[in-house]
Amino acid sequence: MEAKIETKEEFRVKLKEFDTQSYAKSVRKRDKIFEVLGLISTFLVLLFLFTICVDLLIDGWVRIKDYSFYTSYPSRFPEEAGALSSWVGTIYVMTGAIFWAVVLGIPAGIYLEEYGGKGKVAKIIEANIANLAAVPSIVYGLLALGVFVYRFKFGESVLTAGLTLGLLMLPVVVVSTREAIRRIPRSIREAAYALGATRWETLFHHILPYSMGGIFTGLIIAASRAIGETAPLVTIGALTFIAFLPPAPWEDFVGMLKSPFTVLPIQMYNWVSRPQEAFHVNAAASGFILLVIALLMNSVAFYLRYKVRRKYQW
Amino acid sequence: MTLSLGAKKAIDIALFLFLMFMGAVSVFVTFAIVWVLLVDTIRFFTHPDGGGFPTSLIRFLTEKEWTPTFYNKQIGIWPLVNGTFLIAFISMIVAVPLGLLVAVYLSEYASWKVRETVKPWLDFLEAVPTVVYGYFALLFITPILQKFLEPLGITVEGMNALSPGIVIGVMILPYTASMIEDALKGVPQYLREASYALGASKLRTALLVVLPAAKSGVLSAYLLGFSRAIGETMVVAVAAGMYPQLTANPLEPIQTITGYIVQVALGDLPFDSFDYLSIFAAGFVLFLLTLILNSVAVYLKSKAVGY
Description:
By secondary structure, chain A is mainly α. Chain A has helices at 8-17, 20-64, 84-116, 120-133, 137-151, 158-182, 186-194, 199-226, 231-235, 253-258, 264-272, 277-311. Chain B has two domains: 5-46; 78-303, MetI-like (MetI-like fold, Orthogonal Bundle), CATH 1.10.3720. The radius of gyration of chain B is 24 Å and the shape is globular. The interface between A and B is large, with 92 and 87 residues.
């Protein structure tokens, strides 16, 4: 095929010899090979995911099915060590993180989409959020260590951890808020203005209700990433051996915020980095729980996205 | 509504200011990151344990060992940078071809149905906690590597760069592949149709028409993936070891910048100690590396040909 053709005569001969049908066949074959290759690589990646799930399930099964794993504190005896303080800690920290992500992220998203327009301030904020999204999570940990722990004196507490993860969630929440709002057509806004509504009335009566599903989806996705984050919390100096629970918020709110904590991924890191193999069983069990939580959150987000698409078809 | 017009207007302005302020918070966060990294890095270089300002910077750039936590302090950053890049390169060896295959397949070949079933799972792969990947690298991939390479006379240490590198490669794959896919989707349909009209096959169209048209988007996706691999922490903290050294051998224990930060942060850290300051100096280098990569990626994306 690729051989050089020098003269017209040669070209004529080649053309006569050229078998179109078998060429087409070979092309189709190559096409098919590539398609199968693509399918195999996609399948391989999914197989990797599946292997992780099964590996954790098998390794940790003894502890996963053991009720006392969820009700006991960490211990130096692997069979007695449990994840009570870490799953409770995860709930406290994630509540804080979601609070900060909602308070800071949703208004920022609304501002950029509804008010910012093509202004200079909006441009700067937009570029900045894109940058923040690409900052490695451990750098957020350094920020938290240097600023929240030492300079603001919040300590290695639930408050610091919630703030840190909240900031980590911020870019995702801002972007998904903007996308949700962008889907609402201009005509809705103009209809509201035409009836004499002010901007905030339009926002609270129309734009927010219609975009709530999308915003919520983004929030869940962001939370599902943050819940497994270990690096920034290790960096602020979260302890791994916590044999007590933070005080309940309705009893001692400030005490809860200032309380030391541990979370599931940190507990898992602690267990996996021990030399004794018996602790690896605990690590696998906590890893499997984390996977299940992540899967559940992603499924809810997936379902919500589907429902929102159905409900509002502009 | 019984509010007066003036009150409504006041609410409007107040809300606007509130929203703008909240938007600006993200800018404060960026400033805080840069500020804290800068201040503590400067404190690192002026700390007496490092030898005071000009000396410490020279030592940082010329010494060949990184032992700021030891009695005999060496503060050459290169072993950590070496470890970081070694891991990132291994992960790219996995992610570049596989990411391209997956992306081209999903964007050009796969039916709507296949794509809709595969994509949520790829999204889920992104949500798997990194410490879980670390567990998998240490207790699944490394034993497999040992089992297959040991009979060939190759020693694989329990902690090595290869196994976390492979795992990180798969980890950044969904992210890279979905960005490549977006870039391929951005190529207008008429280019494909023109190619088909000239008799080109699907493969030829995909590789010689669509891919070159999307090349800056593809490159930017790879750079962002690379930047993620550099910043990845828990996989290397669990499975790569704690031994900063200048080596290109992926079968030995190494340490990355992120791994060092985790190792030191696990201990007690007084605010003025050299240990504490050293993680900020290391973190500053990490921040600069990722900032450069991300900026180049964003620049490339902005250069992408608009059709």
